[in-house]
Amino acid sequence: MDLNRANGLAPLQTHGLNSGKNWIEENGKTAIKSKPPVVPDPPPPMVKKKNNGRTPRYLLKRIKNALQKIEEASSPSGEAGKKCKHPDCRKLEEDERQELIIALKLKWEKLNRAYQAYPSTIDTESMKFRREGMEEGLAQIERDVQLLSRRVVLISERPPSTSPTTRKKEQRHLVSRAIG
């Protein structure tokens, strides 16, 4: 405390505590003498783990189940090949499906030839409607070929309805859709 008066500084207020210990020096000495904390070794990299590069078991089970379902659906002896879940429908046979695809492709070629031969400049409304009709026909044939190109195709055995509103409702719930 006398040192502070000699330097011209006011005495430090200690609020009634006087220990005579220089805390700054003590903290410095303990910091110098102390050792750094022990840091645990980092975990080994993923490359060095024993399960690295292996497919997890849960994925192997999922793949196995998916392959079994595919085999059951594709094999004619499987339950999916024998039974149809939809009423009034049947599975389209492979040879019948191939015949339909070939016939649709021939029809597409014929319509495409006529479309290509049609003049590019359109003079009248009837020419415009005829050209649009050809484009719609080509697009519909392409959609039909794409539908028949699927693995399993179900065909409805019900006769089509005559009223347009009922026909649209049935088209929304069409049974003759492709599975797969």
Automatic annotation (TrEMBL):
InterPro entries in the cross-refs: Enkurin_dom, Enkurin_domain-protein
A GO molecular-function annotation: calmodulin binding
GO cellular component terms given for this protein: cilium; cytoskeleton
Compositional bias ranges of the Basic residues kind: 169-180
Pro residues composition bias: residue spans: 37-46
Intracellular or extracellular location(s): Cell projection, Cilium; Cytoplasm, Cytoskeleton
Keywords: Cell projection, Cytoplasm, Cytoskeleton
Stretches for region Disordered: 1-55, 158-180
One Pfam short name: Enkurin
Domain spans labelled Enkurin: 64-156
Annotated protein name in UniProt: Enkurin domain-containing protein
Organism: Marchantia polymorpha subsp. ruderalis
